[in-house]
Amino acid sequence: MDSNRLLKIGLFGFGCVGQGLYDILAREKNLPYQIEKICVKDPNKVRPLSSEHFSFNPEELINNDELDLFVEAISDADEAYDIVSAALRKGKRVVTANKKLVAYHLPELIALQQEFGGVLLYEAAVAGGIPIIRAVEEFFSNEPLVRVHGILNGSSNYILSQIFLQKKPYAEALKEAQDKGFAELDPWLDVAGADSRHKLCILAAHAFGRPLAPQEVAFFGIDYLGARDLEFARLNGCGIKLIASVHLNESGQIVPLVIPALVNETDDLKVVEQEFNGVIAEGTYSGPQLFKGKGAGGHPTGAAVLSDVISIGQGYQYGYKKLKRSQTQPALALDYKIEVYLRTADPKLIDVLEFSNQRNIEAAADSDSVVGVLTLESLIKHQDKIREAGAFIMALSSDFVKKKAVKQQEAVALT
Q: In 3-state terms, what secondary structure has residue 287?
């Protein structure tokens, strides 16, 4: 292919990410890429471009042989799967920002690339503008990784920053994140931890050669964060971050988890504030390296999409090196132990979880707070019960394994 030829892009979706990419390409006139056609769903929606730019039929783009590559940037994961899989079956080159799509279908998407010769890149699906997939795929291609963990959701991190730095209540911080475009009108994926879970599934495949199914990963969020939980963190000189983590234990089993965690002033992730993401990739020999960048917003994510567009135009594709080297897939380390804090209005939940080393932290008329040790198996098995109870759970350290002495709140009896 002529490297100087203008490459024509078929774009699916014109929301935050799609418009971010369009705006960047409009500004960067020297780049040999042009969005030729944009496929959108609602023909009646008012848009900033004239109607000739748009199509309402995905097949019109997929079957257009004049288009050199596709960018998928729609919110519906099922529709995105239909588009991406159809394009790959035609041997097309595709860039997607849809982390749920990749998390649920990665093994199949890899197989489609191998069978039909298409290429799929998805850097923008994980950690916004941080090139973390490329880092673990290429830089750590031969060095064993100890752990990859960090803040993978800019919306929840922005909310936590407003709560701890600006002393704003949760509801106000959430509304502000929505007004700024960091959080959706339905913020459940962000604040409940599901979005971070999707991204962690993808990272695990590149970092440890183990694609994780979303149902294998227990996830908890900040949606039930309350005043007593904030006071517990402050009493212990800590903030709270929503941490997504994956590592192998000493037996070579995999430990994936998304959970809020206490972070103190010495924690590398403490400096990651507002809508920023931060990921620590810890190599066996090179040690921990912190990658920090904006994880929300049209331009940061659009820039990550553009990086994939340029790379795919130059012939790059993922090698899935660690996945191909893996002789057997590591099992989940179900007996892995994590020290946690739990506040719940349902005392039966504490018994169901089967804590070890349990200590009561606070007793109130409307809830009880305890700390203790839970296994990964218990967290996976009972995660829905914890959410249904409206309980708030967090790890006592972002390291999970390091025990931390905690100060006890004075018991409060409310009427």
A: strand
Q: What span, in angstroms and rounded, lies between the C-alpha atoms of 357 and 339? A: 9
pLDDT tens digit string along 106-157?
A: 999 999 999 999 999 999 899 888 899 999 999 999 899 999 999 999 999 9
Q: Is 69 inside a domain boundary?
A: yes
Q: Could you list the residue range(s) of the whole structural domain that residue 69 is in? A: 7-121
Q: Return the C-alpha torsion angle 57, 60, 62, 65, nearest 10.
A: -170
270 is catalytic: no
Contacts of 137 (CB under 8 A, 6+ apart): 206, 318, 319, 320, 321
Cβ atoms 214, 197 nearer than 8 A: yes
The pLDDT tens digits for 59-118 are 999 999 999 999 999 989 999 999 999 999 999 999 999 999 999 999 999 999 999 999
Answer yes or no: pTM beyond 0.85.
yes
pLDDT tens by residue, 163-181: 999 999 999 999 999 888 7
Catalytic residue among 199, 241, 292, 294: 199
Q: Between the CA of residue 33 and those of 4, 14, 88, 234, what are the distances in Å?
A: 10, 17, 20, 50
**Tell me, what CATH number does 98's domain have?**
3.40.50.720
